[in-house]
Design brief:
Length: 319
């Protein structure tokens, strides 16, 4: 059973909100677009891998995007599978072209046909996750649980090459479609070796209970404050910014699309970036000139009001 489903990562959601609200002259805009592209590529790779792992949901406990805290360190696992006799960590990689695992120098080289680029060695990265997960389990009195990892190559057209120990790499690296079979095989191997049956659902629940949400201060990282953002309501029809307020709703200046709820997304996006929204900020964001309209809009937006410090926040706050 899958007990934790993937959603779009917060840093990527933030980038998607910020980029259309920046002036085209903002100097770091190209860098931000590049970052959004990179993160989007990672996310779409994870979705592709989820599709293949889904087949395991009938016999094991699956958790997407596990983010745990242990000994003042946070660690993130793309997919975690609590099997019948072991726990499996899946790290997803989504690269175009050819990737070369250099098992001697412990590096990953990607060749897209034009340029060779170097990346963190996924095996070292996943070994670290395994180390943290083992410590986390020990802290929760779960000892002697076998942990294995696999590196899933999301795109079936990516060519995988090895420089060095081909056999060792082939045991842990494969295209996503092969990963479920490799997990089942390993789990059965553990059963044959006499490893005890695990309470996989209980272990999964325990992990789920302690899972946090990975976030990044994207605004701070790119030297932005909400003052750098351009205000206005985006048209759900044609995508341009600056819908006009009319009798409790909005109309697009360009395509004449009408909407009653176009502002709800804008308010929530603002809270995503800023953590909260005040009445004044709402007036600025939506281009309202009446305080009472802003209050009414906020009351209907599914947020809750905090008397101190006089602002609106999401019902469930993310720490
Ligand atoms: Zn429009």
């Amino acid at each position: 059973m899958k007990i934790k489903k993937r959603s779009k990562p917060l840093p990527l959601r933030k980038l998607d909100v910020i980029i259309p609200r920046l002036s085209p002259q903002f100097p770091r805009l190209p860098e931000m677009k590049e970052e959004a592209k990179k993160q989007g590529r990672g996310y779409s790779g994870e979705i592709k891998v989820d599709y293949h792992l889904e087949i395991l949901a009938s016999r094991y406990t699956l958790l997407d995007d596990v983010y745990l805290h242990n000994n003042s360190k946070n660690f993130q696992i793309d997919s975690l599978i609590a099997g019948n006799h072991g726990i499996f960590i899946i790290e997803t990689k989504n690269y175009m072209g050819t990737i070369i695992f250099d098992s001697i120098l412990k590096q990953l080289i990607r060749d897209d046909g034009n340029v060779e680029s170097g990346f963190n060695y996924p095996i070292t990265q996943t070994e670290t996750q395994k180390f943290h997960l083992r410590n986390w389990l020990l802290k929760h009195r779960l000892t002697h649980i076998p942990i294995y990892y696999f590196i899933a190559i999301a795109d079936p057209t990516t060519i995988i090459k090895v420089d060095g120990d081909r056999e060792a790499i082939s045991k842990v690296v494969a295209h996503a479609a092969r990963i479920p079979g490799m997990i089942i095989e390993k789990d059965q191997e553990l059963a044959q070796a006499g490893k005890p049956k695990l309470p996989d659902y209980q272990i999964g629940k325990m992990i789920l209970h302690e899972c946090g949400v990975y976030d990044m201060d994207i605004m701070g990282q790119f030297g932005l404050t909400c003052r750098n953002l351009l205000p206005g309501v985006f048209c759900p029809g044609c995508g341009i910014r600056g819908m006009q307020r009319i009798h409790g709703g909005w109309i697009c200046r360009k395509c004449r699309h009408k909407s009653y709820y176009a502002h709800v997304k804008e308010v929530h996006d603002y809270v995503l970036l800023n953590g909260s929204i005040t009445n004044t900020e709402c007036m600025w964001l939506l281009g309202l000139n009446s305080r009472s309209t802003a209050t009414r809009v906020l009351q209907k937006s599914g947020l809750i009001y905090l008397k101190e410090p006089k602002c609106w926040v999401k019902k469930t706050r993310i720490y």
